[in-house]
Design brief:
Blueprint (H helix, E strand, L loop, with lengths): L1 E5 L9 H12 L3 E5 L2 H13 L4 H22 L4 E3 L10 E3 L2 H4 L13 H11 L4 E5 L8 E3 H6 L7 H5 L5 E5 L3 H7 L3 H7 L1 E4 L1
Parallel strand pairs: 1-2, 1-5, 2-4, 3-4, 5-7, 6-8
Antiparallel strand pairs: 7-8
Helix pairs in contact: 1-8, 2-3
Length: 200
């Protein structure tokens, strides 16, 4: 299994439908998508700053904001399988809904330094995934990328290293060029070689 974290900035990307269709063709049944919160998570942060909302409920709502994007992806591609459990459906692209598991999970840091990057990293570690791919909205990444450099630029969240430091699988990152990578390669293994490496 590969965990694919699709950043919340893809919510408004007109090529989202194409991305999901190409992923379905490449690795059906072997990919688990973790969605970003994007504008929905931003709304939670805004409400937290402007009200007396507790940090606990704010973090729970931030987890749920990723599930709004997940539902939107399901609306775009009916073949996606949404699940809140860690038992995944064969022959489908699974999309994981994290709030039920992580809202009470002590090993997951619930603060504003944990975004869907950390959610994806936690899941990858927990299910012993073959690898994880962070899909961002930059045009492309270098062949080798340092996690610390990307964290300084706020491209990846601050807590993700907590879960990746003990992760045994491959760690990859890609940008908008994922569409071309999926189009030109016949199989998932070839796509993986074209993604950038993420080093801790």
């Amino acid at each position: 299994m590969w965990v694919l974290k699709i950043g919340g900035s893809w919510i408004t990307n007109p090529n989202l439908k194409t991305l999901l269709k190409r992923l379905e063709k490449k690795k059906r049944g072997k990919i688990i998508i973790v969605a970003g919160g994007g504008c929905f998570a931003d709304s939670v942060r805004f409400a937290f700053k402007k009200t007396r909302m507790s940090e606990k409920i704010a973090n729970t709502l931030a987890l749920k904001s990723t599930e709004i994007f997940s539902s939107y992806m399901k609306d775009i591609n009916k073949n996606l399988h949404l699940t809140s459990k860690k038992r995944f459906k064969k022959n489908s692209i699974n999309v994981w809904l994290p709030s039920m598991t992580l809202s009470e999970e002590r090993s997951f840091k619930k603060n504003w330094n944990s975004t869907s990057d950390s959610i994806a990293a936690w899941l990858s570690n927990n299910i012993k995934a073959e690898g994880i791919v962070f899909v961002k909205s930059l045009k492309k990444f270098k062949k080798i990328n340092r996690l610390g450099d990307l964290q300084k630029k706020n491209i990846i969240d601050k807590n993700v290293s907590t879960y990746l430091k003990s992760f045994k699988g491959e760690i990859k990152i890609t940008g908008l060029n994922i569409l071309k990578i999926l189009e030109k390669n016949n199989n998932w293994d070839s796509c993986i070689k074209d993604f950038g490496d993420l080093e801790l």
